[in-house]
Design a protein that fits this description.
With 176 residues, this protein is α+β, with helices and mostly antiparallel strands. The chain has one domain. Helices cover 16% and strands 9% of the residues. It has six helices and four strands. A hairpin with a 6-residue loop joins β1 and β2. The chain is globular, with a radius of gyration of 17 Å. The chain starts with 17 loop residues before the first helix and ends in a 20-residue tail after the last strand. The protein binds iron/sulfur cluster (2 copies). The site of one iron/sulfur cluster (SF4) has 13 residues, from α4. The site of one iron/sulfur cluster has 8 residues, from loops.
Length: 176
């Protein structure tokens, strides 16, 4: 069991939601896409330290990220428009070391469960913002306005951290 006690059981309960019941490679495309919580963290520019695989996040967003919805403004054409946009697949998910700890793909690949604020659990796309997991209100600039040489000035640590309360088993405001 993981220290936070959120490791998923492997029981094949037919009534369990798909992310608990299915292996990632068994998910339909629709199920796979719905795993994205819409946080937008992975759409921030990142810097990789030379000679290591250490990644630093910045608060500079991809030019296609909508800072309010925290979604890609042209998801269908993203690969054509942004050369280094990475499409997550079951084949590369375990090789991508820079995914935020809150990312649903990372959680499920690590055998963990989704948290209360994930839209698939809450039924509400706003809870990812309410929990402080998304980038809403935290994007410093768009890459359109920041030359590469200035990216180091925008390094931030929060995209690789858990916001307070996000690891609770339920919404803190719903506790009795
Ligand atoms: S970090 Fe993960 S959950 Fe968040 S937007 Fe990126 S792919 Fe989706
Ligand atoms: S193209 Fe869209 S999905 Fe890809 S990094 Fe940019 S905002 Fe995110």
């Amino acid at each position: 069991m993981a220290p936070n006690g959120r490791t998923m059981t492997t029981a094949k309960d037919p009534d369990a939601p798909f992310w608990r019941r299915k292996a990632m490679k068994e998910m339909t495309r629709e199920e796979w896409e719905s795993l994205c919580d819409g946080c937008g963290r992975c759409c921030l520019n990142k810097l990789q330290e030379e000679g290591t695989d250490r990644t630093y996040y910045t608060d500079v967003s991809c030019k296609l990220l909508d800072g309010q919805s925290c979604r890609c403004s042209d998801y269908e054409n993203r690969s054509a428009k942004v050369k280094d946009c990475v499409t997550l697949t079951t084949r590369n998910i375990n090789r991508i070391v820079w995914l935020p700890p809150t990312c649903a793909y990372r959680l499920i690949a690590d055998g963990k469960d989704l948290y209360w604020w994930h839209p698939l659990v809450s039924g509400d796309p706003d809870t990812v913002h309410q929990a402080g997991v998304s980038v809403r209100g935290k994007v410093g600039a768009s890459e359109i306005d920041v030359p590469d040489r200035d990216l180091e000035d925008h390094i931030v640590s929060w995209p690789l951290k858990w916001p307070k309360g996000a690891k609770e088993k339920a919404s803190p405001s719903k506790k009795v």
